[in-house]
Give the backbone structure.
Amino acid sequence: MSVIDVHAHVFPRISESESRILTGADGPWLRVHRDGTGMMMSGTQEYRPVTGPLWDPQQRLAAMDTLGVDVQAVSSAPLMFGYDADPARAAEWCELVNDRILDYCSPAPHRLLPLCQVPLQDLQRACETVSKAAAAGHRGVHIGNHVGDRSLADADIIAFLTHCADEGMPVLVHPWDMPGGERTRPHMLQWLVGMPAETQLTILGMALAGAFERLPESLKLCFCHGGGSFAFLLGRADNAWHHRDIVRADSPKPPSAYVRRFYVDSAVFDPRALRLLVEVMGPDRVMLGTDFPFPLGEQQPGSAIRDCASLSDADRALLLGANAAEFFSITEESAHV
């Protein structure tokens, strides 16, 4: 069985001048240094130091070989979403990014699965972008977990997700734009606390708003970073649904009734946490995700899965690749071409 990583990022080579498509100034772009390192840029501001696999597919493929990963679904860095831009500019920006991601994956199309991004702030343009990307060869869609104050339970975003289901495009949801403030500024607390909280907020918000009741069951939806805090606080949410009418006002079922409607990745970095995640979600709803090639990702892909003593060999095979093969409609033959 192939090892398939569903959560791996790419930042294709986009110049500072090209980044101005998005807002006219201060867009995201990639600065590559002579020593082979790089810097993700937001206008003139340095955002994050990065390494070659983020923009060089040959370096990525070599790293995948070393790490024992057969296939990666590659998605843009969330810095590139552009949800606060003018919709027309954002649509043009997404077209550029999506074309570059296709080019990035072209040397090994059976090992590198391109996921498109969309101007999620505009329903019509987002749907048009997905349809065009699907026709061009993208294998799924990568979106953020909110657009400003609009959650994924927003009526337009529900309509967009329904369109993805109709197009047969799986959707990967990534937390982003986490709450700031002085308390989260030190020690990367925005990422360590804010990201899990954002994802829990999204899943629980969808469940309690009745979003899963309005979405087609054919939609393939996956939440990154192990679904955040959702699995670990699900009992609290169910308890509230049973005892407070204000909690259950818009949902006919408790949150736990919807765990079969989505997947999560395995990026929890601890076999004990993974055991609970699998117990809550089921072994057929968790897929390997590493956050490659960022330093907060799982450095040895699948190590938590392999070290989780409560998993059977059959369960491990599901998490390491079989679930993702079903999610992205990958055949065993194509994964090894």
